[in-house]
Amino acid sequence: MTNIYYLYNKNLDKNYFDLKRFADEELSFKVIENGTIIPNKRGKNIPGWWGTGGIFDAQGKFVAGSFPVEISDEAFEPPAETGKSSETVVYLGLFSPSWGHSITINLQSLWFLQSDAFKTEFKNCRLAYIPWWSGKENLYIGDKKSLARLLEILEVDVSALQPITQPTQFDKIVLPDRSFFIGDGKMLFTNEYRETIERVRDFALKNSTPTSSKKIYYFYGRTQTGEERLADYFKSKGYEIVLPENLPLDEQLNILANCESFASTLGSCSHNSIFLPNDAEVILIPRSPNVFTAYQQTIDQVHPSRINYIDSSLSLFGGVHGPNCFIISKQLKSFFGDKFDGYVTEDFKTFLEYVKDSIGKKNTVNRMARKHYGKFFPDFMAQLRRRPKLIASCDMPPDWQKKLL
User: Fold this and answer.
1) pTM
2) Dihedrals φ, ψ of 350, to 5°?
3) Is residue 149 classed as helix, strand or coil in its secondary structure?
4) What confidence score (pLDDT) does residue 358 get?
5) pLDDT per residue over 204-247, tens digit each?
6) Is the model's pLDDT at 150 over the cut of 70?
7) Sheet holding 240-242, edge to edge
8) Phi, psi of 241 (to 5 degrees)
9) CA dihedral 96, 363, 46, 48 (to 10 degrees)
10) Domain locations in the chain?
11) Rounded to whole angstroms, how far apart are CA atoms 255 and 251?
């Protein structure tokens, strides 16, 4: 169940949350003879921040199903020169360094390693993957190597992994269907992806030990102004503040296995909710009111949980990746049953700090975010203008208010 009552513009966003993300289809695989795997690099017509990476068949046509997201078949060009190998390899795709992608797209082909076809025909084959950055072939993620550990938990033979750092033609490339993918214009998952995640949760439960808190707040921090206050508010409600980057994966899984209420701002941190027990409470704070990552909405439907989306931001600048600003909103206080007597000085200081920093870095206002804040933003600004001494004390740049229009 997903509760969007505490969003600034819940009626504007309702249809987005009504999308069904489960794809009830049977996955298979195909064998590409004399295909070539290319390493990751920037390419033309590539969506967002993605690089390239994928498979060309023997005729030099790009195999779209070998890329993590939907793209045109003409997006990539075949390599001019390739190395050659007489091996048969199983292709696992592009491995992103983002932890959110490590538990979504990086796992989309792993179902195949549990299949009868793999165990009877391809068990001794190398597992080809494309590292996001050349030089990171050891799956180094942060300082805990969490992706490598996740693969070990899923019983992937890490020693069989073969990073592709230059175009290489193989006698045969086994390409599994994806269990987490974009189709029909939306993010989808299959039962095979759910089973992959279930194996991680089973591992966590089997190896769990008691923890000090059943309520946790996952702290993100980067490009986010005011999250410290957000975390302090949750701490006052009995939540333990967790910095996941500082913990080994096994310890994180243990915390999540024992968790009854999980809170986080929306993004890679919030994606960890996929490892919570069934029916756990989940509190998600969007970075801005028009940014609901499709990855999270898909994760929300993998297992039954009590999902609550609560707006508590005032992010006007930048795009999906920030910068972001958080305050203690009326919506957040209302969720916890606290009385709201208006915004306090620290809310206004946080916002002014965020605006000053964003203007100094020449960030531009996100017009769509400005629209989605609706009447909330003018009301906030009206209260702020009644505090000229506070504004003066923050040494704001000239015409800063006009830059918000």
Assistant:
1) 0.92
2) -60, -45
3) helix
4) 94
5) 999 999 999 999 999 997 778 999 999 999 999 999 999 998 89
6) yes
7) 2-6, 306-310, 281-285, 261-265, 215-218, 240-242
8) -85, 125
9) 50
10) 2-18+203-404, 29-178
11) 6
